[in-house]
Amino acid sequence: KSKAQFGSVGRRIPYRILHVINQDGESLGHMHRAEALQLMDQHNLKLVLLRENADPPVYRLMTGQQIHEEQLRRAEKKKGSPKPGVVQKELSISSTIAKNDLETKTKQIAQWIEKKYHVKITIRQARDSNTDMFLLFDQILETVSEKATYLSKPKVAREGVSTCVLRHMSDKELKAYQKNKNSTEENKASEDLKSNDLCQ
Q: Which domain of life is it from (predicted)?
């Protein structure tokens, strides 16, 4: 059964008794449907179904802004989660990882990408380390850039922890990457020729 879109249920409440949570996340206990609708009107809020299979079902009073933010959060989470049938591997490293360890991990990522797996990378900021975690993500992507791209861009998951998800490029993206790379190499070759002529 597919989950209904998260949002206001309007006045369509099929249950007589509900468990209601206010917009600050505090429980208001069980109440009659009419009472919940009255609260909704009084405070100009919207009712959102949180848990339908609870007894009684749980509804939350929310502002339009809260609903919008929650919808964005859920969409982002869905984007970062693998599609059915796609294997997602996870790898966790410290921001102070040694160069040779990073090379080993990157080889592992490249092997997973080859197999068309999604790879979730988590970087933990070590204490007293001022490494730019986003630069580290870009450095990792750079080593597998001929095959991989971001499925979900690097973001801070919580304090001191950042994540991203890499995926294999589609055939179309690979062609565009190769074309771009070839034209860059041609430009570089012509630049080199020019500088050689100048030196002579």
A: Eukaryota
